[in-house]
Write a structure and sequence with these properties.
With 157 residues, the protein is mostly helical. The protein has one domain: Cytochrome c/b562 (Four Helix Bundle (Hemerythrin (Met), subunit A)), CATH 1.20.120.10. The chain has 6 helices and 3 strands. Strands 1-2-3 form a 3-stranded mixed beta sheet. β1 and β2 form a beta hairpin. α2 packs antiparallel against α3, α2 packs antiparallel against α6 and α5 runs antiparallel to α6. The protein is elongated and about 75 Å long. The chain binds heme C. Heme C (HEC) binds next to α2, α5, α6 and β3. Heme C binds next to α2, α5, α6 and β3.
């Protein structure tokens, strides 16, 4: 009897964990939209947080592009290295839970690729190589932008 109850409890616990993993790690909080992208539904402050991150990305890309033109590898190392520093633990947990898995993966991979770019700039390399790597990295920007947008959870379209 005791074993049966404990098996049952384990099954319930597993179901709860599976539900949590599916809801908060894989699915996130999303809605379809009429422009073909998937909306990630967030609170206003969370939207501000993501967009500020994005403007940071654009500043980094701007700085690296300018540095490529000046053959300034030291500057590329600094800028790419900074953008490469990232820990999911720094993202507010409720926001992280709202992002679907593909969104989280693309976002984290983008930071990793900036880290790789810093390493590339450290090795003896040419501006053209950095430019090629930046072009490849930016496929993550365009991939995510063509698939996702941010809508407020209060007014999903
Ligand atoms: C994981 C997904 C993802 C990745 C990767 C990503 N973005 Fe974004 N970005 C978004 C979303 C979502 C928006 C909001 C778009 C919308 O709501 O229409 C956005 C918006 C922006 C904006 C507008 C900011 C504002 O204040 O309105 C800029 C600029 C931007 N991204 C730059 C970049 C650059 C540069 C990269 C690559 C280095 C990048 N993003 C990578 C998802 C991403």
């Amino acid at each position: 009897m005791k074993t049966k109850i404990s098996i049952l409890l384990n099954i319930i616990l597993l179901a709860v964990v599976a539900f949590g993993v599916n809801k908060f790690i894989i699915q996130g909080s999303t809605a379809p939209t009429d422009d073909g992208r998937t909306a990630v539904l967030v609170a206003p402050s969370e939207k501000d947080y993501v967009l500020a991150e994005m403007r940071g990305f654009l500043e980094t890309v701007q700085g690296i592009t300018a540095a490529i033109g000046e053959n300034n590898m030291a500057e590329i190392r600094v800028l790419a290295g900074k953008a490469g520093e990232f820990s999911p633990a720094n993202v507010p947990a409720p926001l992280f839970a709202k992002m679907p898995i593909e969104f989280k993966t693309l976002g984290m991979e983008t930071h990793t690729l900036f880290g790789d770019l810093a390493t590339l700039a450290e090795a003896a390399t040419t501006p053209a190589e950095v430019s090629t790597a930046l072009g490849e990295l930016m496929l993550n920007c365009t991939a995510c932008h063509s698939s996702y947008r941010l809508d407020l959870e209060s007014e999903p379209s």
